[in-house]
Amino acid sequence: MDAKEEANYGHAAGNEITCTAAVAWGPGQAFSIQQIRVLPPQKLEVRIKILLTSICHTDLSAWQGQNESQRMYPRILGHEASGVVESVGEGVEDIEEGDHVLTIFNGECGECTYCKSKTTNLCAKFRVDPLRSLMRNDGKTRFLTQDGKPIYHFLNTSTFSEYTVMDSACVVKINPKAPLNTMTLLSCCLSTGFGSVVNTANIHQGSTVAVFGLGAVGLAVILGAKARGASTIIGIDINDDKRIKGETLGMTHFINPRDLKTSLNEKIRAMTKGGVDFSFECAGNLDVLREAFLSTHDGWGLTVLLGIHSTPRMLPLHPMELFDGRTITGSVFGGLKGKTQLPLLVNQFMNMEGLKLEEFITHELPFNKIDQAFELLIHGKSLRCLLHL
């Protein structure tokens, strides 16, 4: 059975589907692996058979309910995934049944002033929005419990389900020959980290780089820095186990801040004769962000913020510190326009040798072991755990 036949097996476009999903019913509660109803896609929507999904810290913080304003239950989390298109709604022209696709949380409608701008990858309608839990067409969900109660959406995607319905602006068709196990990670961590190096920072040959936090996004930054020819790539993490993985991907130096007798930024400035050209904050910690900012060279140093930070704390900078020539910026989805640029990145990754993308996948489990996958992430034992649906 080929991919298209598999996606449509037993289903007819336009019909409701019953399938298995992992439903979050409250902050920190064990996922409920249960049968749900998935409605057909409406205008400019796509229904996808999810084949692989993985877990990142954004899913973890949402499941734990760390930000009270973003709590909404019951909800289907998950946003990093690959799959096959099962059916499309009215008006969808760039995607067909049977296409191999990636899900993206930061969509691209292609028509708004943001999408037409060359200076941003945000979209007026479909940018990442953790507060949104309903479909835009009608303000309703496409997920229902068996007795008809709504189950809410998450980050434009909701991939912890055998089938999901998404706006077509958040669905990216990719090369059918691309290996879905590694390409799945391009729907979040690899694109975010690698893209922030290439697009946001645009680092150059011989640059010096410091990466704060060696989770999957931080390691993707290392991958991008090596590909761009950085001369020095310093990885910083409190977990010594990250050293080997970082060195495998191109890291040249490793620092565990707990081993230092001086401040971290002072150590880095001493190592690099004044500071690095670029630093990337991937930890979601404001104290770390300050160290990253001060570790860059005055006059030209750039800090790229990639970590997710909770409120209400604000930037740990004094405005006058910006007069020293250091700058700081954020990066969403690595500055990539998902619909137009992600397929090109997939092809680029397929043709580049020595990327070692498989190094990011530390575990693979069946979907019903999702609680175990979260435990691995909580205890720092996994980078990316692929769940097979």
Automatic annotation (TrEMBL):
<dbReference type="InterPro" id="IPR020843">
    <property type="entry name" value="ER"/>
</dbReference>
<dbReference type="Pfam" id="PF00107">
    <property type="entry name" value="ADH_zinc_N"/>
</dbReference>
<dbReference type="Pfam" id="PF08240">
    <property type="entry name" value="ADH_N"/>
</dbReference>
<keyword id="KW-0862">Zinc</keyword>
<comment type="similarity">
    <text>Belongs to the zinc-containing alcohol dehydrogenase family. Class-III subfamily.</text>
</comment>
<keyword id="KW-0479">Metal-binding</keyword>
<dbReference type="GO" id="GO:0008270">
    <property type="term" value="F:zinc ion binding"/>
</dbReference>
<dbReference type="GO" id="GO:0051903">
    <property type="term" value="F:S-(hydroxymethyl)glutathione dehydrogenase [NAD(P)+] activity"/>
</dbReference>
<dbReference type="InterPro" id="IPR013149">
    <property type="entry name" value="ADH-like_C"/>
</dbReference>
<protein>
    <recommendedName>
        <fullName>Enoyl reductase (ER) domain-containing protein</fullName>
    </recommendedName>
</protein>
<feature type="domain" description="Enoyl reductase (ER)">
    <location>
        <begin position="28"/>
        <end position="383"/>
    </location>
</feature>
<dbReference type="InterPro" id="IPR036291">
    <property type="entry name" value="NAD(P)-bd_dom_sf"/>
</dbReference>
<keyword id="KW-0560">Oxidoreductase</keyword>
<keyword id="KW-0520">NAD</keyword>
<dbReference type="InterPro" id="IPR013154">
    <property type="entry name" value="ADH-like_N"/>
</dbReference>
<dbReference type="InterPro" id="IPR011032">
    <property type="entry name" value="GroES-like_sf"/>
</dbReference>
<comment type="subunit">
    <text>Homodimer.</text>
</comment>
<dbReference type="GO" id="GO:0046294">
    <property type="term" value="P:formaldehyde catabolic process"/>
</dbReference>
<dbReference type="InterPro" id="IPR002328">
    <property type="entry name" value="ADH_Zn_CS"/>
</dbReference>
<dbReference type="GO" id="GO:0005829">
    <property type="term" value="C:cytosol"/>
</dbReference>
